[in-house]
Amino acid sequence: LLTILYINIQVFERERLNGHYGATAFVVGNSFSAVPYLIIISLVPGAIVYYLPGLHKGYQHFFYFVLLLFACMMLVESLMMIVASLVPNYLLGIITGSGIQGMMILGGGFFQLPNDIPKIFWKYPLYYIVFHKYAYQGMFKNEFEGLKFDNNQDGEQILRDTWQLELGYSKWVDLAILFGMVVVYRLVFLGIIKATEKLKPVVKAFMAVPPKPTTQIIENLEAVAYLPEVKV
């Protein structure tokens, strides 16, 4: 994915210099052109993963599951586009993108429950700004809401006591937050491209080394040839 993004950005920079289109057209076109492929990537593996373990029956639950996968795929692509626009080196971009994703996963509330996450940085603000939190909540709500168990427990009680989720809003709000993050990430990417266009000439002018002054000496050979000899 990151390789394709680097190629797309390089093609865009060349075509922008030729005056074919601007940054806004590139971001909008890139976003819409990726939608069919991301839908296929979300739908086919999602159907395999969803029905094999016997998750919540019903097409509405499966439709929500696929939409959530699609939103997460869009978010990951948007995040990598931001990394590719900021980090010019491919290998450094892989390291940077993997590091950001790792920090998001650690603070998303899966490996540690929300009440056990360290308050400084990991929960405030990381837990509330990473998209993994809302993806996990949407997945768990989609699976456990409406279920009844033999030990007089229901799905909402497990979500509240075991997974420590926020039940003040529905799973569709979690999905809407994810799609809102997609828009924000794309706007950030657009802003970085536009800022880079304006800052590149300034940086080049600032980094340019002024030429050293040269001294040119012109010799009058005819005058030298007719100079009188001086005897010592």
TrEMBL record:
User: InterPro entries, per this entry?
Assistant: ABC2_TM (IPR013525), Plant_ABCG (IPR052215)
Residues forming coiled coils: none
Transport as a keyword of this entry, yes or no, is: yes
Chief localisation class: membrane
The highest taxon in the source lineage is Eukaryota
Q: Where is the ABC-2 type transporter transmembrane domain?
A: 4-144
Quote any Pfam family the record assigns: ABC2_membrane
According to the record, the segments passing through the membrane are 34-52, 64-84, 90-113, 172-193
Keywords, in A-Z order: Membrane, Transmembrane, Transmembrane helix, Transport
Any one of the GO CC terms = membrane
Keyword Nuclease in annotation = no
One GO molecular function term of this record is:
ABC-type transporter activity
Query: Per the similarity annotation, which family is this?
Result: Belongs to the ABC transporter superfamily. ABCG family. Eye pigment precursor importer (TC 3.A.1.204) subfamily.
* Protein name (database record): ABC-2 type transporter transmembrane domain-containing protein
